Amino acid sequence: MTMQDPTAMPSSDAETLRASRLAPGTWALLVLLAGLLCTAEAVRREMGSVRADMRAMQVSMAGFAQERLRADLDLAAQALRAMQTVFLGSDHVDQAIFDRYQQNLRANERMHGHVVTAFARLHPGPSYPYELVTPMAGNEMLIGFDSSSQVENLKALQRARDTDTVAMSAPFHLVQFKDRPGQPVLGVTVRLPVYSHGAAPATVAQRRAREMGALAISLRLEPMVRGALEGWILEFMHVELCDPDVPGEAGVIYASEPGLVAPADAEERRIMFGGRQWHLSMWPRAGKTSYTSVLMVGLTGTVISLLLALLLWTLANTRRRAVEMGLRMGERFGESEARFRALNELLPALVLLADARDGTIAYANQAARRQLGVAGGEPLPSLFADPAQGRDALEIARAGGDWSGREALIVPGAGEPFWAHASLARVEVDGIPHLLMVANDVSEQRKLTERLGYQAAHDELTGLYNRREFERRLQKALATLEKDPSASFAVLYIDLDQFKLVNDLSGHMAGDQLLVELVHAMREQLRPQDLLARLGGDEFGLLAPATGAAQARALAERMRDCIENVVFPWEGRTYTVSASIGVVVAGETGATLKDILAWADSACYQAKENGRNRVHIYREDVDTTRRQGEMEWATRLRRALEEDRLLLDYQEVVPLAPEPGDHAPRLELLLRLRDEDGNVVMPGAFLPAAERYGLMPVIDRWVIRTALANANRLHPRGAELRTFAINLSGASIEDQGLADYILGCIAEYRVEPRRVCLEITETVAVRNLRRVVPVIERLRAAGCRIALDDFGAGMSSFGYLKNLPVDIIKIDGAFIRDLETDPVSRIIVSAIAQIGHQRGLRVVAEWVDDPRMLPLLRERGVDLAQGFALHRPERVVFQRDPVRPAG
């Protein structure tokens, strides 16, 4: 503002003012009102900005609180799933085993409010007394306690049992704390059923029939909520967590201030878990919102409006009173300046006034003196950590420009630098240009924002970027590549070999520590511009900008070598791991994020296929195309299993010289798949992918259970069916639990074991004789029949035949197909039949596609035959569409 001498007013101006219809006081009042209106509008906008910032922080904290609470509940679900797997994989789980697994899961450390993990076995009645409890200290009274006596517990248990999913109870008073002084302790239980051994039950009736008991984790609600929300959330927010399905005060799970009613603008979230939902309400605590910037704007605008009104009052008076009014104005200005300084001394904001000519500070209010350590005479730009920003601010303000609402790092004379929300404007005092700076400390708010942003983009264990941030950076690199094709980059997909062994032998804590040490070693190999991220449990991604194929291979080899050289000691054991690394060099436009990640994964898989601990660079070739096709088939197979789209056909096995009365059908079951469009796919298209990706055991068990469950609905003649053969893969026959599974299904569905024939190929049988023979002997002892398929293809068949306890041998179709024209094939078929009969075995010929083969097979003593000449495959009866013919 400019202070002028009223005696210097020209006479023409004074005469104009004197001739005005309005009095000088009226003009001054109008200017004051206009200034106050402008100030009110500025205050309204600043108030809106402050409230918007608080609302944004409230929304962000509510989302973060929702995620933290859900994460604790998800930890309980994961722990229960892990313990369910223990019960499925072991016939006997005692207290020591139960304690050890819980210690490995670190339930007490990882779950806020964890009270107990327990197993209740189903007893007639029904009743569910607790049998295993950990930790035992403080929970001793639960041993033998019937959990079904608690209504909330029983409802959750039954819901979990009928759906085979995690279920959570309504809040109730935990029985462990009923005899302790103080208020009853409110908690919940998270439940998961334990079924008897076998495939996962598919219906409610099957789940109830195979129920063994139930696992439970009890959580104290108040420490769980406080543990999840401690810190900024509880400091700045009122929090209320309710279960809306529980009426009255019993449904209040947690309230930071009991008795407070949530306002209408409270931020609300719903937490869905275990078949229940919680209602989360959050609203700011009183006194935590800073309105200093609003107060500063209001005070500054009001003072400036008053000064402008006073100035106009002075200019509007007549020359006759110029000297008198000049003296009075001087006195009033002194009083206004004193009031201005008094008001500024009370403001919490930092207020500084500097001479615009040289930038030296002329005035600093109390807050600025205390926080900055300045009193006057210091250059204003020296307060900025960035000198260039300070100089720019001064130049803009000197020129009358707008430099407001900026964030700057301020360096005090003593103490730590801090971030401030600052504004700088040009004013005039006594005709001298000055610069007025007003700033607010926003360091804490900035730290909170940075912390939330860091957690959203980084892996908690290693501190590396997480998958979401890695994909965002990769997408940005692809966008740059689209604009500049020369901006090539490389992506490395790093998968640790045999890392699971460390977790299995020494626990997840050891695995986590090993990952931290491996990350430290890998970081030492990186350039400043390289970006390393953790994509999964033991998978890492590396984005290397400006990298060609040769550089990418060299970088990958360095990473592989450094991982291999890490020696990790843990509790008396020493571990080393290696890594398989897939490399993709992106130097062309058109590739998508999905393409790059799929190529990198494919190259990594190829590295594992080639022997592990090696580097493979992606390129378009036959192996890669086959690998991608198999990956797609593996995904489609998993979806087909989930949607129950596998099919069974049967082909009859016909006796070549039937005995009188021997008319009961024999058949072999053949696998098919119905694709997404309803077309039937033959097994040659999808079984290679199933074998490569370890899906054969799941498929075999589906065939076994489906066939045995529908044994009398496979063939039109139903119960007359004499035998049905099921093919077993190598991955299944070497599974020591296969025999238990088959015998369990036979008992469950009450199928006569002599009707069941299990076929294994010769190559599978001889590949691991020691593991296969015990499985075969158990099944034969129970009454099942064993067939050796593709006999003769293994080149050493006769030598192994005497060591394999089988009932049937099926001659490889390659010998049958050439039987009419090839003398060697006729000799081999005759020899197999003769040796088989000497061993007391039945001999079957496969691939009989020509009726002219039948007399030749009879002459050579073959007992049975199958092929298109005798019967073309048909769909099993129970899967036939009633509106379409079979097949």
Automatic annotation (TrEMBL):
InterPro entries assigned: Biofilm_reg_signaling, CHASE_dom, CHASE_sf, EAL_dom, EAL_sf, GGDEF_dom, Nucleotide_cyclase, PAS
Keyword line: Membrane, Transmembrane, Transmembrane helix
Cellular compartments annotated: Membrane
Record NCBIfam families: GGDEF, sensory_box
Gene3D superfamilies: 3.30.70.270, CHASE domain, EAL domain, PAS domain
The keyword Plastid is assigned to this record: no
Cofactor(s) demanded: Mg(2+)
Organismal lineage: Bacteria, Pseudomonadati, Pseudomonadota, Gammaproteobacteria, Lysobacterales
A GO CC term attached to the entry: membrane
A molecular function (GO) term: catalytic activity
Pfam family, one: CHASE
Positions of the CHASE domain: 126-230
Name of the protein: Diguanylate cyclase/phosphodiesterase with PAS/PAC and Chase sensor(S)
Nucleus among keywords: no
Residue ranges constituting the EAL domain according to the UniProt record: 630-887
GO annotation, biological process: signal transduction
Membrane spanning stretches: 294-315
The GGDEF domain, residue ranges: 487-620
Superkingdom, taxonomy of origin: Bacteria
